[in-house]
Design a protein that fits this description.
Helices cover 80% and strands 0% of the residues. Helix 4 runs antiparallel to helix 6, helix 6 runs antiparallel to helix 8 and helix 8 packs antiparallel against helix 9.
Length: 216
């Protein structure tokens, strides 16, 4: 009888943890979507002192840094969302450590429109580029903490998960950190080099990490 009661209590706890994971996933998707949407707010309609096609064309060209900032941050956040989606697909439940780690990640993602605005407005200055690339690195670090909180607890991970997938996810969490760090260092040498670091760093670092994983 006691065994039956303990089994029922265990099932209730597991059901609660599953429901917590589901709510956490929905909430996270909403925050990612809002952060990505808010990025476009920084691309404001230009105000013209003289109504002419030439002035409007020039004003739109002057917004090129804003376009670059939007596209860069949109795909950065999008990539974190894809990783988040993949990670949570490996889980069957959530606990308080996962909830708080996820909350810190969402805080860094929600703040992303501000460094993006600074980056777009002051692309030629090291401080502007430094803030942006530092924040990318910080999101990567928090994402790594979340990944470990999720995969280090066997109770949270799906029992049918391939150990190789778990190792690959842990290793993949380092990619954003390396890209952010490389772009930050490049930006301190020359602000425009940070763009090269962001554009080239992603495929290069990803290939190196996946190549090492494949050799293992």
């Amino acid at each position: 009888m006691a065994s039956s009661g303990g089994e029922v209590e265990g099932n209730e706890v597991h059901s609660h943890e599953e429901a917590m994971l589901e709510r956490l996933t929905f909430f996270s998707d909403a925050v990612f979507a809002i952060a990505m949407t808010l990025l476009v707010i920084e691309i404001r309609v230009p105000h013209l002192h003289e109504l002419s096609d030439r002035h409007l064309g020039q004003a739109l060209l002057n917004l090129l840094p804003n376009y670059a900032g939007f596209l860069s941050s949109f795909f950065v956040i999008g990539r974190f969302w894809v990783g988040h989606h993949t990670l949570f697909g490996m889980l069957r439940a959530a606990d308080s450590r996962l909830v708080w780690s996820n909350l810190f990640l969402l805080a860094t993602v929600a703040f992303m429109p501000f460094p993006t605005a600074i980056f777009s407005e002051y692309l030629q200055l090291r401080v502007g580029v430094g803030l942006y690339t530092f924040w990318l690195t910080l999101i990567g670090v928090v994402n790594l903490v979340l990944t470990r909180a999720a995969l280090d607890n066997p109770r949270l991970v799906r029992p049918d998960l391939d150990p190789a997938q778990r190792r690959a996810r842990r290793r993949g969490a380092w990619i954003a950190i390396w890209i952010g760090a490389i772009s930050f260092a490049a930006g301190m040498v020359s602000p425009l080099l940070s763009l090269a670091g962001l554009a080239i760093g992603s495929p290069v670092v990803s290939r190196i990490v996946r190549g090492r994983e494949g050799r293992r």
